[in-house]
Amino acid sequence: MPTRRHILAFAALNAIGRVSASQAENRPRAVATFSILNDLVKNVGGERAEVDALVGPNGDIHVYAPTPADAKTLAVADVIFVNGLGLEGWLDQLIAASGSKAPVVVATRGIHPRKMTDEHDSNRLVSDPHAWQSVANAEIYVANIRDGLSAADPAGKEFYQARAAAYLAALDALDLEIKAAIATIPPDRRRIITTHKAFGYFGDAYSLEFIAPEGVSTDAEPSARDVANIITQIRTQKIPAVFMENITDPRLMERIAEETGAKIGGMIYSDSLSPPNGPAATYVDMMRHNVRAFQRALTS
Q1: Strand runs labelled E in the chain
Q2: pTM to 2 decimal places
Q3: How many CB atoms lie within 10 A of CB 146?
Q4: pLDDT of res. 197
Q5: Domain architecture of the chain: domains with CATH
C-alpha cells in the first residue's frame, strides 16, 4: 500500500506539474528510448515538456527494430534521453539517419555498472544495462534527466528542479518500502528464477538471488544444457519460484516449472512497463508490483 510519505510526495509532484498556457505552447520536445525511461522523464518534465518514447509498453528494447516514424520523431526532438550501457545498440544509426542535432543525455551517467559475461562470448565481460532495477540508481537517472531538461529549456530550470526533488522524495519512500517487503522473506528462500538476466541490480540492492537461463539480452536463446542446468539447480537448491516477464515467451518458464515443481510466481516487469491499464504503468508501480510478487511467492 502507498505510504503517507508516498502520497505527500506525489501530491507535491502534481502541484508542481501545472504550467501556464504560454509555457505549454513552448514545451521542449524530449524523446526517451523506452517506456521506463520515458516515465522517469515525464515525472521530471511534467506538463512543461512534451515526452515521447521510441519503444512503448510491453516492447522489448533488446530486439527492437526502429521504424521511419522513429527517425521523424528524433528529427524534431530538442533533447534525447538514452539509457546507455549498451542497451540501445540500434540507436546511433537511427540518430544518424534522422539527421537530429539534439543533445543526447545518457541517463546512467555516474552509475557504476555491474559486469557480466557476454551471452555471445563467454570470454568477454559486458556492462549490465538494467541499472533502473535499483531505486538508488533510478535516482541518478532522475538527476541526469533534470539536468538534461534544464539545459534544453533553461527557462524551466527551477520547474524541473522542483519536480525532480518531489519525485526523488517518492523514490526514497519506494526504496524503503521494497526493503521492508524483502525483510519479510526468509533469507534461505530469497532465490528466484527469471527469464533473462535483468534483475542483477535489484538483487545486489535488496539481497535477492536471481538465476536466469537466458543472457543479459532477450535475443539470446538458452541452450538445452543451460535449461538442464537450471532444472538441476532448482531441484538441488529447492528454489521455490520461477517468474515470467512481460517481454519474453512464457513457454520456457512453464516448462521449467512443470519439470521441477517450482511455483510460477506470476508476471513481472523488467525492461518495459505495462500499458496504462496494467499493473506496472509507471516505474513506481512496476517496482512495487514486482516486489509484491516476489514477496507472495517466497513467503507462502
Answers
A1: 29-34, 50-55, 79-82, 104-106, 115-118, 121-127, 191-193, 209-211, 241-245, 263-268
A2: 0.84
A3: 22
A4: 83
A5: 4-176 (3.40.50.1980), 179-299 (3.40.50.1980)
